[in-house]
Amino acid sequence: MASKDSNSKKVATAAIKMALTDRKEEGKLKKDYKKDEMKVAAVDFGGDYNSSIKTIIERAIIAAKRENVIKETHTDQGAVAGATREALTQLNSKAIGFNVGGKIGIARQDDHISVAIFFAIGLLHLNEMAIGLGHRAVT
């Protein structure tokens, strides 16, 4: 049982790291995680939070498919959509009504998929930073 828990933690950590990287670091991390047989992806986003929710979920799914993190099945796409929705739910109270920008990090190893969302929530020049994390298990 401990190995399954550590896999969840490894995948969640990878998703968070991907969400926090710049483009240069992202490429290096992809290579490092590939050696560990972990698939990762990342994508930027921005806009009004309320009108961006659907786009954020779509971008996560598209990035995961593009980087071969998931297959083009309802199960895999639903897992990414659900984990992304969970991460957004954790950020909802801070972000609703504001402009947001940031990055989505996605990681998968075996049957574990994690999605991390890093937000800069804008109000003039005062930005709030937040991270949401969702996890799903797929077979």
Automatic annotation (TrEMBL):
* CDD domains tied to this protein: HutP
User: Which InterPro entries does the record associate with it?
Assistant: Regulatory_HutP, Regulatory_HutP_sf
Q: Which UniProt keywords apply?
A: Activator, RNA-binding, Transcription, Transcription regulation
Query: Per the record's keyword annotation, is Hydrolase included, yes or no?
Result: no
One example GO MF annotation: RNA binding
Keyword Transcription among UniProt keywords: yes
Instruction: Please list every transmembrane segment annotated in the UniProt record, as residue ranges.
Output: none
Query: Which Pfam family, any one of them, does this sequence belong to?
Result: HutP
Task performed by this protein: Antiterminator that binds to cis-acting regulatory sequences on the mRNA in the presence of histidine, thereby suppressing transcription termination and activating the hut operon for histidine utilization.
Instruction: Provide the family line.
Output: Belongs to the HutP family.
Quaternary structure annotation from Swiss-Prot or TrEMBL: Homohexamer.
User: What protein name does the entry list?
Assistant: Hut operon positive regulatory protein
- Tell me what organism the protein belongs to: Orenia marismortui
Kindly list the organism's lineage: Bacteria, Bacillati, Bacillota, Clostridia, Halanaerobiales
